[in-house]
Design a protein that fits this description.
Strand order of the largest sheet: 9-8-7-10-13-15-14
CATH topology of the largest domain: Rossmann fold
Distance between the termini: 59 Å
Number of domains: 2
Helix content: 25-40%
Strand content: 25-35%
Number of strands: 15
Order of helices and strands: HEEEHEHEEHEHEHEHEEEHEEE
Length: about 300
């Protein structure tokens, strides 16, 4: 079979699968009032892409790792899906063979300014579908965000806060939130997301390790801390590197010194929690926080009562 013939057959398979998924997930999303979700999660091994919809616009993540991976093949897949779904727009992202790293997450890839507004859980978020590797809203953390908001907490600390979605969820139920991230760009987006939902938060640009040390010295404490660190970070703003597998125990020690309950998550595929914490109660929420639109386990998640 020629490459062209194979691509056409795969495009047809993909389109059929996406239409089937869209029919099922579309009803669920309408009931839940969600306008951003995953339509295809590498369901077919020979077609290693993910397809997310953001209020009708599609974002296709290409997970082919071959050096000679061609745009022609991807264009064929996208055209077939766009035609079947009558999608308004399609945006492409190329993924590399490792988990998300902070440097790539923060690096600007384009200047398209493809801003869109989406809804989830009764909240509104701004997303950018083209200019960064990630859009500004991690769809796999949808249930984790709801679980954070369901905690009986009055105060919440959001570490590695990205664009502040956890702060929006928790602020909406009346928690006083503190939102910490090292990137001014993402704190500005967090501020916009909070404004969209008529909320506010204590927004702090800081290295998390430095922030936790200062908070402990100042005697600050929160009922709940949400911790979703990058898999790896070597930012120019830091004088050290961070690896979530190697360093999560020290990080959790620091967080446990200022919080009563910790929701910890990571998207490192082979992550193993080695932190035990004296007297801490640890519940593995990985499967309980994996949304139905994700076929593959997208993250590990834990609830820790200190």
């Amino acid at each position: 079979m020629s490459d062209e013939t194979r691509a056409k057959a795969q495009a047809e398979m993909l389109a059929n699968r996406v239409v089937k998924n869209a029919k099922h997930l579309g009803r669920w999303a309408a009931r839940e009032k969600i306008t951003c979700y995953r339509l295809y999660d590498r369901d077919i091994p020979e077609i290693p892409v993910t397809i997310d919809t953001y209020a009708g616009a599609l974002v296709i993540n290409d997970y082919r790792f071959e050096r000679e991976a061609t745009d022609t093949w991807l264009d064929e897949m996208a055209a077939a899906v766009q035609k079947q779904l009558d999608a308004t727009e399609v945006f492409f992202k190329r993924r590399l063979r490792h988990d998300r790293r902070e440097g790539e997450q923060y690096a600007r890839l384009d200047t398209t300014e493809a801003w869109r507004t989406v809804t989830e859980g009764g909240h509104t978020f701004r997303v950018n579908l083209a200019d960064y590797l990630d859009t500004g809203l991690f769809l796999d953390q949808r249930i984790t965000r709801a679980k954070a908001a369901a905690e009986p907490a009055k105060t919440m600390l959001n570490l590695f806060a990205y664009t502040g979605s956890f702060s929006v969820y928790c602020g909406a139920v009346g928690m006083r939130t503190t939102t910490v991230d090292m990137s001014r760009t993402y704190l500005d987006l967090a501020h916009k997301n909070l404004e969209l939902n008529r909320l506010d938060s204590e927004l702090l640009q800081s290295d998390v390790r430095e922030f936790l040390l200062a908070a402990r010295n100042a005697g600050r404490r929160w009922d709940l801390a949400v911790v979703d660190p990058p898999t790896f970070s070597s930012s120019k703003r830091m004088d050290y590197t961070f690896d979530v597998q190697r360093d999560h125990a020290a990080l959790l020690d620091d967080v446990a010194a200022v919080a009563d309950v910790i929701l910890f998550s990571t998207n490192r595929k082979k992550f193993k929690l080695t932190w035990e914490g004296s007297g801490a109660e640890i519940a593995d929420l990985t499967y309980a926080t994996t949304p139905q639109d994700f076929k593959h386990r997208p993250h590990h998640a834990y609830r820790i009562k200190v």
